[in-house]
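Hi there,

I know you've been waiting on this one. I reran it after we fixed the sequence typo, so this is the corrected version. Both the input and the resulting structure follow.
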Amino acid sequence: MIVRSTWVAVGLLALVLIGACSSSESSKTERLARAPFKGLTEKNIRVGTTDLLVVVDDTESERSQGLRGRRNLGGYDGMLFEYPSSSTPTFTMSTVAVGLDVGFYDAQGKPVDRLAMTPCSGSEFDCPAYRSRRPFRYALETLSGDLPRGALRLRG
């Protein structure tokens, strides 16, 4: 009976360790963002052959805020906008103080468009609207000149 309970304990310990390894693997690709983006998620992605650490906007309110009012990316390579399905929402640079490039990608990560966006101190209604020529599932904003070419690959 003691041998059997020892094996049961060993089996349970193995399951706990496997679970811990699995959750630490996922935390390597997606975890809570640090300042100045507390409350958001950060994720490792790849565009073409370039690995990037980005902040993820995956809710409507996060996508609405974007990089408004920020002068830098706080050590991140960009901001990834994830949409629940393919769509063509517009982007504005209202109250964004620095130039940004935005790449648009379909659900498989294939590039569908890219644009250079200029800063605008006005309201959403006063600033130009930027729109992809085709529907997209992901949009990646980087500082002007930093957007790599190639397909988007989400890690993990």
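Quick highlight: Residues 1-27 have pLDDT under 50 and may be disordered.

Best,
R. S.
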